[in-house]
Amino acid sequence: MISAVALLGACSLSIIPEGTARGAPAEDGDWVEGPPSASQPARKPIRQAPVRQTAGTIEAVASEQITAVSDDDTRATGAGIALGPDIASLNLQSAKASAALQSFRTSCSSLVRRTDNSGLTSGEDWRQSCDAATNWPSDDARRFFESYFEAVQVGDGKAFATGYFEPQIQGSRVRTNGSQVPIYRRPSNLLDVDLGQFSDALKDKRIRGKVNGTKLVPFEERAQIDDGALAGQGLEIGWASDYIEFFFLQIQGSGRIAMPDGSVMRIGYDGQNGRDYTGIGRVMRERGLLADGKTNMQGIVEWLRANPEEGRKIMRENKSYIFFRELTGPGPLGAMGHPVVGRTSVAADRKFVPLGAPVFLDMEHNIADGIWIAQDTGGAIKGSNRFDTFWGAGEEAAQIAGGMSSRGQALIFLPKGSVAKLLQSQQGN
């Protein structure tokens, strides 16, 4: 079974957001409703927000108490922020807090030195909590988060979460009669161009393509690659047994290849061709191809197998193509370059959540409730309070991720004093 989510929608030779460099997490789903748009309230003084947890639900902050501290509404500081409740008042389950502490500790080496695209913090702001995390006992993780962080609501706090996982499919390291679908490594001529190096107005924008003579041109799309555009270049790291299964593994951005001898090769994202992502579930719904009750992952796969010729054409409408590398250490790796952990790591939009920050979710699907660490990104995980929860590998992970489409409330944990610091910065401008 494959998860009900989709991967990054990076566009070739069009401006794409910073953070779509890898593809493990997912889009808002081929078959799920898109997230609500975040409100963009006018600037008002920051006050303590009357957010509280009642019967398991975080109540939203009134819009008049949310402050935008910048004019850039593409970032958290422009979407508006408000202090949330004391972290001690939240339902931080000890086991989940302990796992979150471990993942936070893992992220610290990057967190203290990376640029925070959200505008909420600087790397140095995290130094104290990261130093404390180094030797903090895991069985006292709740007190760690209560001691070093304050809960902050971004925008209206209304969250939408999907799920992703690490699938396993059949394949081989060499081409056989039963394994004919190539798994390609990243081609050497695939280029990522950081446009911010050329113009401040294009900060955080990139394009992907390849050089043809003196021009940067689009890289081959899925149909061209399927038809052999990369064949004979020695790029194959393995071969998948089933095109549909590999198509959806690409959507997840990482996975496991079960070999004929019983061994398993783990593969992770190593690039994307820069072409637009198209969610085929949405295409199939719009064309009336999916019957009522068949708009989930299983229904889509059933239709593709029952209509192989037309199904292949529909899959080719998703021009995005993912390249892989073999993983030999912990993984899969998130956008920070650290391993993502099932039931602990979450993908977020780095313009609204600092990568490495703890996130508290209170969702309709209460299996997603609790503290997560933002360690990943995804092309459709965009905007404030949009998250993609990672559930690990195996059938249970697939079942949970495939059914994860939930709304609720979200808080971000920032170093204590962050909101006051942002307010001072606003008053100084």
TrEMBL record:
It catalyses: Exolytic cleavage of the (1->4)-beta-glycosidic linkage between N-acetylmuramic acid (MurNAc) and N-acetylglucosamine (GlcNAc) residues in peptidoglycan, from either the reducing or the non-reducing ends of the peptidoglycan chains, with concomitant formation of a 1,6-anhydrobond in the MurNAc residue. InterPro entries: 3D_dom (IPR010611), MltA (IPR026044), MltA_B (IPR005300), RlpA-like_sf (IPR036908). SUPFAM superfamilies: Barwin-like endoglucanases. Its EC number is 4.2.2.n1. Keywords: Cell wall biogenesis/degradation, Lyase. It comes from the Bacteria. The keyword ATP-binding does not apply. It holds the Pfam family MltA. This is peptidoglycan lytic exotransglycosylase. Residues 21-53 are annotated as: Disordered. Residues 168-325 form the Lytic transglycosylase MltA domain.
